[in-house]
Amino acid sequence: MDELNRDDCNMGIVKISDEVISVIAAIATSEIKGVIGMNPGMTAGGITQLLTGKKNNTKGVKVTVDNENTVLDVALTVEYGVNIPDIVTKVQENVKKSVEAMTGLNVSSVNVFVQHIVVEKQVSNNEQ
């Protein structure tokens, strides 16, 4: 697992793992209304777990950190009927804001890949 090393504070090294960054990005993504899940192969139970933050909350997020920039790739499923460009913009803004605020990293881009769409009836039937 790659880690970011920060020496800025002269008090020691701070390491933030890719997994931590992925969790932050996944939670920030799940906060956006219209996002159903982040792992295209995930079952309805897995989607519920993702949205509650209990399990599988790094799937669907790829983190690339170099010396000065962080790039996040987020793969997600959206609800049928939503404005996809609007959802994607909200995801990008929320992920960037959350990761930067919590880690101090410079997020240069958040690439969003909408891989699936789910009809609301399918979601409610699968959750029962």
TrEMBL record:
<comment type="similarity">
    <text>Belongs to the asp23 family.</text>
</comment>
<protein>
    <submittedName>
        <fullName>Uncharacterized conserved protein YloU, alkaline shock protein (Asp23) family</fullName>
    </submittedName>
</protein>
<dbReference type="Pfam" id="PF03780">
    <property type="entry name" value="Asp23"/>
</dbReference>
<dbReference type="InterPro" id="IPR005531">
    <property type="entry name" value="Asp23"/>
</dbReference>
